[in-house]
Structure formats: structure tokens, C-alpha cells
Design brief:
CATH topology of one domain: paralog of FGE (formylglycine-generating enzyme)
Distance between the termini: 50 Å
Shape: globular
Radius of gyration: 27 Å
InterPro entries: CTDL_fold (IPR016187), Sulfatase_Mod_Factor_Kinase (IPR051043), SUMF_dom (IPR005532), SUMF_sf (IPR042095)
Structural class: alpha+beta
GO molecular function: formylglycine-generating oxidase activity
Largest sheet: 4 strands, antiparallel
Pfam family, one: FGE-sulfatase
Strand order of the largest sheet: 1-4-20-9
Protein name: Sulfatase-modifying factor enzyme 1
Keywords: Signal
Length: 497
């Protein structure tokens, strides 16, 4: 008589052994069959346990998508500079709050510790301009001394920072986070004696131009190697660069349409980062509470004593008010924020409909005559230069480095948009249709800033509004927050997609 129980047990045992064998088997190439991470067949290494990119502290994932970028209400200045255009923004990360005073003081402390003795100008160039608080007919003098340094303002947004300074902060933050990640992985030890060019820089480390205090080098499986190696980009240990968000990213994140979407249908086109056209909460629990810090009317910055409206005459703390549907604070009001783009009034007519941005200046790393990477500079950074027309002559997607003026409407971009025949430094600017920064305030150094501030009326709270300022100037109402690109898929793995 056949024992079905024994048959079932044998089948179960065979399936279990097969599963365990397959799960324990080492991964190999789908195209060549060679086993990964095997020193006996050449030692090609692949991170087979990689899950998702590490995320720096304070960042929120903004799931990308398509939206109508641009005008949502009439412009009181009658400017025609934000024509509605449907675009797609890829997923990215952005700071939950504006960069606060305490964050920027930490940055200055590091600069002073590392460069203060031999390169004090690095520290001085990074200092915010606290004189932005002075008014000719107002008494703001105490703020010149207290707003940035006093602990009462520790968690208030930093202001008096130019676009250039904000970008330098982003680069610094990239290196500090990556150094922390390498220390956390046990690859490096903290080096308290970093000075001048011998400070941790992500690109210099990857290029083999920074050693540091090595704790545990990664194993090199190459039979002809030394048996040790530094971390590589392929290991997925470090984060991509921090940077300012593009205008499209910032506007998309501020609108927070993820909370208004049902099956690819946006059920309500928002004017502000919340539903409706008012600035008070429409939830009963929060009736009467303002959702942003702004100027309600002439001379009214915070309301009447005993019944304050937004409760802040100046900027408020960075985590104040109600966050939008991405969990981002103060995407309307408090301080306006720098974004990456160069300003042109009609950029929306010509920009790409995927990841739109104006401001590209394509660069490449500096090499010596033999093609080897040049030594890092005196601040410990890898050197870059603009790509030349000769290097780009066989490309079809660009022919020159500087694309800021591409399709912006002047003769330069109309007749010779890619500088293919005329060197950029030999162009006679008197023959241009108009002269940036001479007949107009617009120049290649005019950078966009977005959102309203503590001193702006409600109109500027709309994420669609756009203004601009020279990249080297600063005010008491413009701050910034950092962003980071998402590598890989559009979804977070926590969503199970």
C-alpha cells in the first residue's frame, strides 16, 4: 500500500532543500554567468544587499509626478513670467524645514576650525550679512547683533545669506553627512585634526586624494590587488550631493498635490500649499489658526495684542504652523527661499517638460597632460572647468558649456544658440537685442526665489509666484532649504512598490 504521507514528506523535504540551496547560492551575472564577489574569477564586486539610498537627516521624500506649473492667480504687477505649463518632476528629497540659524552656525564653526588659521577669508565669505536688518526709518538695530547668534533665535530661519553662500553650505553638508556615514560603517574614524586641504571631501575621497584615519578598509577581491580598498560609489554607502531645489521642484513640493490626487486626477488645483483660498485652517480642531507667517495688511505683521493672528512679527521658528501634505513646514510665508534657477521671464515657454531647469553650465574634472586627475585645490576640493566647444563638437544634445541663455529670446540664442562658430568671449554684446544687467535688472546672475515671507502680503504665499535677485545679494526675508536627488525608482521601498 502506498504511503502518501511519506511521499508528501519527501516532496516537502526536497522543496525545502532546493529553496535553501537557491537562497544560499551566490549571485551571478545574468549576462555572462560569472559569479559576483569571487576572488577566484577576477574579483568583480557588486553590492547584492543594496536596498535604497541612505537619506541624510532632516530630509523628506517628495514623490514626483506631473503637474501644471505656473500661474494660479492674477499678478498685481501684471508680469507675464509664469505661464502655466504641464511638466513632470522626478522624485527627490527636500528639507522638512528651512535651514535654521543653529545649522548655519555649525557650518561656520567647522569652517573656522578647519580653515581659520591659514584661510580666514573662507570663514569671512560665509558669514551672513546681519546688516540686512537695518532700516532707514525703523529701529531694528538690536536684530543686527541678536537675530543670528542669540539662542532665542536658534531655531529661526537663517537670513542674510546669498544664493552663492547657500550653495556653498549645500556642498559642505554633503561632505559632513558622507563623512558621518563612513564613520558609522566603521570605514573611517573621526579625524579631529582636519586642516585646510586635508579635510574630508566626498569627491576627493572617491578619487583617492583623501586618506583620513582609516579604521576598516573594505575587502578588495581582485587577486592582483592589495586586499584592501576604500569605499566606492558602487557600494551605495554615501548620499548624492545636497543642493538647492530647482524652481520646478520647489513649486511642486510646496503645492503638495499628493494630498489632492485620486487615481491620477487632481481633485482641486491649489492656490496655496493647502486647500482653499484662505489662510486659516478649515479643520474644526484648528479653526482660527493661521497657516502661514505673512503680512496681513499695511502695518499688520502679527495682529492685535491679546489676539495675535500669525503670532510672528519677524520670521517664526522653522517648524511653526501646519505642514503641507508632504510634511514640509513653511512652504508659504516665514521666509522666501532661494532656488537653483537663473531667472528669465519667459523660461516657461521653452523649458523641458521633464525636470525643467534653466542654469546649466556643463563642467568636467581638470586633468593633467597625461589625462590623470589633477591634484585637489587648497581647500581640499576636486578641480573643475567648463567643457569646451571642441570637446562638444560631436555631441547632439549640447555644443557648449553655458546654456543659461539658451532660447531666452536674444540674438545670441536665436542665431547661434550653441556658440558653435563664435567663441563666447568674442561676442560683441552691443549687437544683442537687449543687454542683460544694463538695460534690464535681469542678468546671468539673477536667481529665482520662491514663496512669500513674513513681510509679504498673501499673494506671494502662492507657490507659483516667482521673483529674482542677484546671486551675491541677500535680504532679511530670504532663506533657503536643501534638496537631494533620488537615485533609482520613483517610489520609496517603504511603500512596497
Amino acid at each position: 500500500m502506498i504511503s502518501y504521507r511519506n511521499i508528501y514528506l519527501k516532496i516537502f523535504f526536497f522543496a525545502t532543500v532546493t529553496f535553501l540551496a537557491s537562497s544560499c547560492a551566490k549571485e551571478s551575472s545574468r549576462t555572462t554567468g560569472w559569479e559576483y564577489n569571487n576572488s577566484k574569477n577576477g574579483g568583480f564586486q557588486v553590492n547584492t544587499k543594496y536596498g535604497e539610498q541612505p537619506v541624510g537627516p532632516g530630509l523628506k521624500l517628495v514623490e514626483g509626478g506631473t503637474f501644471t506649473m505656473g500661474r494660479t492667480s492674477d499678478n498685481p504687477m501684471y508680469d507675464w513670467d509664469n505661464i502655466p505649463r504641464r511638466v513632470t518632476v522626478p522624485s527627490f528629497y527636500i528639507d522638512e524645514t528651512e535651514v535654521a540659524n543653529v545649522d548655519y552656525v555649525e557650518y561656520l564653526y567647522w569652517l573656522s576650525r578647519v580653515f581659520g588659521t591659514d584661510y580666514p577669508e573662507v570663514y569671512r565669505k560665509a558669514l551672513p550679512d546681519t546688516l540686512v536688518w537695518r532700516e532707514k526709518l525703523a529701529y531694528n538695530e538690536p536684530l543686527v547683533e541678536t537675530y543670528f547668534r542669540h539662542p532665542a533665535y536658534r531655531n529661526y530661519p537663517v537670513v542674510g545669506v546669498s544664493w552663492v553662500q547657500a550653495n556653498e553650505y549645500c556642498l559642505w553638508r554633503t561632505d559632513r553627512v558622507n563623512e558621518m556615514l563612513l564613520i558609522r560603517e566603521g570605514i573611517l574614524d573621526f579625524d579631529p585634526d582636519q586642516r585646510n586641504e586635508n579635510n574630508f571631501n566626498t569627491e576627493a575621497y572617491l578619487a583617492g586624494q583623501y586618506e583620513g584615519l582609516v579604521n576598516k578598509p573594505l575587502k578588495d577581491l581582485n587577486p592582483s590587488g592589495t586586499g584592501e580598498r576604500r569605499a566606492r560609489l558602487e557600494d551605495g554607502i554615501m548620499v548624492p550631493k545636497y543642493r538647492l531645489p530647482t524652481e520646478a521642484e520647489w513649486e511642486f513640493a510646496a503645492l503638495g498635490l499628493v494630498g489632492n490626487t485620486v487615481y491620477e486626477r487632481i481633485v482641486e488645483r491649489r492656490v496655496y500649499p493647502w486647500n482653499g483660498t484662505i489662510v486659516r485652517s478649515d479643520q474644526k480642531k484648528y479653526y482660527g489658526q493661521f497657516l502661514a507667517n505673512f503680512k496681513r495688511g499695511r502695518g499688520d505683521y502679527m495682529g492685535v495684542a491679546g489676539s495675535l493672528n500669525d503670532g510672528a512679527d519677524l520670521p517664526a521658528e522653522v517648524a511653526s504652523y501646519w505642514p503641507n501634505d508632504y510634511g514640509l513646514y513653511n512652504m508659504a510665508g516665514n521666509v522666501a527661499e532661494w532656488v537653483l534657477d537663473v531667472y528669465r521671464p519667459l523660461t516657461f515657454e521653452d523649458m523641458a517638460d521633464y525636470a525643467p531647469y534653466r542654469g546649466n553650465v556643463f563642467t568636467t574634472k581638470v586633468t593633467d597632460e597625461e589625462g590623470f586627475l589633477a591634484p585637489k585645490d587648497s581647500l581640499g576640493r576636486i578641480k573643475y572647468r567648463e567643457v569646451t566647444t571642441e570637446e562638444s563638437k560631436d555631441r547632439f544634445n549640447y555644443r557648449s558649456a553655458n546654456q543659461i541663455n539658451y532660447l531666452d529670446g536674444d540674438y545670441q540664442s536665436t542665431i547661434n544658440p550653441d556658440w558653435t562658430t563664435i567663441p563666447a568671449d568674442s561676442v560683441n554684446t552691443t549687437n544683442m537685442m537687449y543687454e542683460y544687467a544694463k538695460t534690464s535688472l535681469v542678468s546671468d546672475k539673477s536667481r529665482v526665489y520662491k514663496g512669500g515671507s513674513w513681510r509679504d502680503p498673501a499673494y506671494y504665499l502662492s507657490p507659483a509666484t516667482r521673483r529674482y535677485l542677484d546671486q551675491n545679494l541677500s535680504t532679511n526675508y530670504i532663506g533657503f532649504r536643501c534638496a537631494m536627488g533620488k537615485v533609482g525608482g520613483a517610489y520609496s521601498s517603504s511603500k512596497g512598490k
